[in-house]
Input
Amino acid sequence: MRDDVPIAFRCGKCGAQLKATARHAGKTLPCPKCATDVMVPSPTALGLEPGIPEAPQTAPPPIPGFPLAGPPPVPQNGLGASPPTTEVRQGPVCGETPPSRANAALIALTVTSLAVAVAALAVIVVLVVRGTGGGRGEEPGLTIRQFTGEAAKEEVLAVQRRANIDAAKTQIGAFRGALEHYAIDCRSFPSTEQGLYALVECPPDLPETVAWKGPYLTGAIPKDPWGNDYHYEYTAGTHQDPRIWSNGPDRMPNTEDDIGNWQE
Output
């Protein structure tokens, strides 16, 4: 069983959904919400680890008239076949980038960007078709001059605004997932002062007894779609989730278009 296989379980006190990896199996970790120590169940108890080993796979027989791709295996156990080997995987050490936990967010942001381009192209096609009467002798709804005017700009800006809001929500969700992994390793969420940067760099004020195993995000902390920083706030001991938000399209704090994880 690989030590990076995810294990999902619940806190026995508050019922919060918790996540850990197979390397934490059998260890006691604190619940980020109620601070109760919870034993991480083993993969075998959850039915994630097979009861019997898989039989080694053998190569298909060679096709007559074609050479083998490589030399045949050399018998090493006296039975005419080499014993199966087991690949040993080690977890990441401090300073080493682990398997990306933000790949899903990066893919979602890429898809969102493509959706913006496709939607903008669709708006252009619709406006051009309206401006030419659709090629069916209809009265034109918009002229080419109107198409290049304010009406077309407003349509494209509306599509871009919706795409930017979706991209901000996706990135905030990626931050939330990385923070959960941080809380499992460090027994708490980062403080407000440590902020989101604790996901990519070990905080200098972190106690030596805490095992920071990041970075928990790939690359630097990104800006929001409007070029501003994301905001983070968490007070230890409150048993509440941290708050993550963007000031939104108007770039002003505490307005109706702010985008935060409490709105999900």
In short: The beta strands are 6-10, 17-21, 28-30, 37-39, 231-233, 243-246, 259-260. Residues 103-263 form a domain with the Glycoprotein, Type 4 Pilin fold (CATH 3.30.700.10).
